[in-house]
Amino acid sequence: MSDLMTRAVADVAEVMKFENWLRFYFVKEEEGEAVRIEIPAEIMEHLKKTQEHLAGLAEQYNGELVDYQKSCTDTCAHVALVYDGNKYPPGTVTSVWDTKALKLEMYLFGLWMQGHEAQLDEEFMDFPAWLSGFEQWKNTAEVQDYLDRLTDVGQRANQ
């Protein structure tokens, strides 16, 4: 995979992780398949100052009912708005969605969230702390061994 695609995958994955973080900490009520997101004003201000490229998605979600379809639509639209034709050549981020690299990254992120849910619930962690915790976990020998086995099996299946 080219360096450009590697960076694009990382950026798209960051937005997807951010969306998970929003839904993890800021759900105020559930209505069927949807959840209402309410982000405190001080958190919104902090996001605007520290994660400007992600704050727009938080603003879109704030006060809204978010279901699976809205989540997919808004996340994709945010990625396109921020990255497609701005940071990356037009069409680059569109090709990221179906990459094995993105699927694997988000699979590992889901495992991390499941395995650390109790710890994440204990106290609020800002988004950079989430990313740091995930990266530390992902870089452990156990996870790297698992990742090597996953990618080795995938490579053998493609031969």
Secondary-structure blueprint of this entry?
Blueprint: H1 3-25, E1 27-31, E2 34-37, H2 41-50, H3 52-61, E3 65-66, H4 68-83, H5 92-96, H6 100-122, H7 127-138, H8 141-157
Helix pairs in contact: 1-3, 1-4, 1-6, 2-3, 3-4, 6-7
The secondary structure category is: mainly alpha
Indicate the low-confidence ranges by residue numbers: none
Rg result: 17 Å
Query: What is the percent of helical residues?
Result: over 70%
What is the count of DSSP helices, taking H or I runs of 4+ residues?
Answer: 8
Spatial sequence of strands, sheet with the most strands: 1-2-3
> How would you spell out the order of helices and strands?
HEEHHEHHHHH
Task: Give a concise summary.
The protein is mainly alpha-helical and 159 residues long. The protein is 73% helix and 7% strand.
Describe the overall structure:
By secondary structure, the protein is mainly α. It is built from 8 helices and 3 strands. Strands 1-2-3 form a 3-stranded antiparallel beta sheet. A hairpin with a 2-residue loop joins β1 and β2. α2 runs antiparallel to α3 (52-61). The longest helix has 23 residues, at 3-25. The radius of gyration is 17 Å and the shape is globular. The two termini are 17 Å apart. The model has no long low-confidence stretch (mean pLDDT 92).
Key attributes of the depicted protein:
single chain; 8 helices; mainly alpha; about 160 residues
